[in-house]
Specification:
This is MmgE/PrpD family protein. By secondary structure, the chain is an alpha+beta fold. 45% of the residues lie in helices and 9% in strands. The strands form 3 sheets. It has a 4-stranded mixed beta sheet with strand order 6-5-7-8, with helices on one face. The chain has a two-stranded antiparallel sheet with strand order 1-2.
Length: 479
């Protein structure tokens, strides 16, 4: 058994709520608030409706809730829907290293917390542990984009083609196992099993798949069921893979990494919380567009451009901008809409309310918006090929807007919603996002109650009570 697996298992089994710094407790509440809000927004999407219908069809014992839907299904089937709902609009939080970790780890811990009637403190601890373990395992693997120096003022980048969210399932099992009170030995078996109950690493396939499928870069809802199965089996005495990370065929290899760097996983465990660097999305689209969208909104605010005023928009962003799905101009579904640079800037130019409205059918078929897309181009910011960035959370953006015969330019270093001074999304903004996302599903009174409960989660005695605030009132449902 590797030292990494032993240490992570002990951490997950023995950590206590009182070990968490106040700032980490607060961040857990914010992550849960944002994840639930994104799920509520996604109920109006086609992908959301289909995933809810499937989970209800599979049914099972009434153990856990689908966010925003009346009634209960089995824990696994609640996870199946909730994982897909959280990520359906690409509006959910992300972290480095990793990316969209929350849709893979939040639904399993929420379902088991509800099923076992755990406390708010229990849910907070499981949420933190699941993210932390997922991110630490990921830190030991190849990043999605690898950068190589080619001289004093030049660098190139390569893609880890089979990248994906498979490794996050180890984190999901850590959170679920903690809620089940697994001891260190059984936790080891649970994490070892969870590593095998993962999806194949499909993130790279997404980038070249135009038109896009609803799968996107993976199926967090389906994978999250594996974390629950792994923990229940370990609880029963089923033996997992105690050598999960070992050798040339370890987890790192079969989840798409080119290398395994165990020395990067454990330093700072208990003291340095990777979980603290959550990035929250103000716009329902791929994160690489956000820095330039910030600039565009600022420019429109200063100059009052109308769509007719604008002759062209030239967008510069991170390396990912060159990928086919970011360059796509054919909008057949909400998934195409989330990634197309031309579409998202066209929506912004037309003043569509920020939120699920960007992916409403009427918006995606608006002839004026679709025609405006021809004015938008997107390319890689030149600094990405010159030298390493000063901060790993940097997301350089530049925009050139030609309007009324004049070209306006602006640049930025971070996207709003990044935990860096001047770019954070504070509690008021995050709550405002939640309120807007929830309003199609919940009553104003329910929204108020949900916000109060989530932001005071450490004082919630039973998660089942929290869930009452995030499903429709009076037995109706949004489907």
């Amino acid at each position: 058994m590797t030292d990494v697996l032993k240490a992570l298992s002990r951490f997950a089994a023995e950590a206590a709520y009182d070990d968490l710094p106040h700032a980490i407790v607060h961040e857990a509440k914010r992550v849960l608030l944002d994840s639930i809000g994104c799920a509520l927004a996604s109920i109006s999407s086609e992908k959301g409706r289909l995933c809810i219908a499937l989970s209800q069809r599979l049914g099972g014992p009434a153990e856990a809730s689908i966010i925003g839907v009346a009634g209960k299904v089995s824990s696994c089937n609640a996870v199946l829907a909730n994982g897909e709902l959280i990520n359906a609009m690409d509006y959910d939080a992300l972290v480095i290293p990793g990316g969209h970790v929350s849709p893979y780890v939040v639904p399993p811990v929420m379902a088991i917390a509800e099923q076992r009637n755990a406390s708010g403190k229990d849910l907070i601890l499981a949420t933190v542990l699941s993210h932390e373990v997922a991110m630490r395992v990921t830190r030991g693997m190849s990043p999605m984009i690898q950068v190589f120096a080619e001289g004093p003022d030049a660098q190139r980048y390569e893609w880890t083609t089979p990248y994906g969210g498979s490794r996050f399932n180890v984190g999901a099992a850590a959170g679920v196992g903690r809620l089940l009170a697994l001891d260190t030995q059984r936790m080891t078996h649970a994490l070892g099993l969870a590593g095998h109950y993962t999806q194949v690493p499909t993130h790279g396939k997404l980038s070249y798949s135009v038109p896009m499928s609803m799968v996107k870069y993976g199926t967090p809802g389906w994978q999250g069921t594996g974390a629950i199965v792994a923990c229940y089996l370990a609880e029963m005495g089923y033996l997992g893979d105690e050598t999960l990370f070992d050798g040339v065929s370890g987890l790192w290899r079969f989840t798409g990494s080119d290398t395994w760097m165990p020395e990067r996983v454990l330093p700072g465990l208990h003291d340095e919380w990777l979980f603290a660097e959550q990035q929250y999305k103000p716009y329902p689209c791929c994160r690489v567009l956000h820095s330039s969208l910030d600039l565009f909104y600022r420019m429109v605010g200063l100059h009052g451009f109308t769509p007719d005023d604008i002759d062209s928009i030239r967008v510069f962003g991170p390396q990912y901008c060159e990928k086919p799905h970011l360059q796509n101009r054919i909008i057949l579904s909400a998934i195409d809409a989330q990634f197309s640079a031309a579409y998202n800037f066209a929506v912004a130019a037309h003043g569509v309310t920020i939120g699920p409205e960007w992916q409403d059918e009427a918006t995606m078929h608006d002839a004026k918006i679709l025609a405006f897309m021809d004015k938008v181009t997107c390319e890689v910011h030149p600094e990405y090929t010159r030298r390493p960035l000063a901060d790993r959370l940097m997301s350089l953006g530049r925009i050139e807007v030609t309007a009324n015969g004049r070209t306006y330019t602006d640049e930025t270093t971070f996207a709003s919603g990044t935990p860096r001074p001047g770019f954070e999304m504070d509690d008021a903004a995050l709550i405002g996002k939640f309120r807007h996302n929830a309003r199609r599903v919940l009553t104003p009174a329910q929204i108020d109650a949900a916000v109060d409960a989530l932001m005071d989660l450490e004082n919630v005695h039973a998660v089942s009570g929290l869930m009452q605030h995030i499903v429709p009132a009076h037995g109706s449902d949004a489907t």
